[in-house]
Specification:
The protein has four helices and five strands, in the order βαβαβαββα. It is of the alpha/beta class. It is globular and about 35 Å long.
Amino acid sequence: MNHLTNITDIEEVISKNCLCLFYVKAPDCGVCNVMLSKVERLVENYSQLLSFYTDITEEPLIASRFLVYAGPTVLLMLEGKEVYRSSRFIDLDELERKIVQLIEFLEL
């Protein structure tokens, strides 16, 4: 999972890739760090999915641009548009189902 720290880079990656997973964490959040490692293991199985993360304090514009007010937050972006969001208590099974659904949709 790539670590991006600049809003311009984040927006460029989202616009240039069909399917992205964007994970936002807070610096002193134990849950954020634990969930990051779990999400990283989950996305390793899906090469079609570009994944990256950032720390909300590294780029404060993320909160306003992506309406992220709590960590952890995971966003799935399809062709630059948000199609899935989960914050605080991320259901990994639901996230994986959504990823599979989107990958199958793209392969039609």
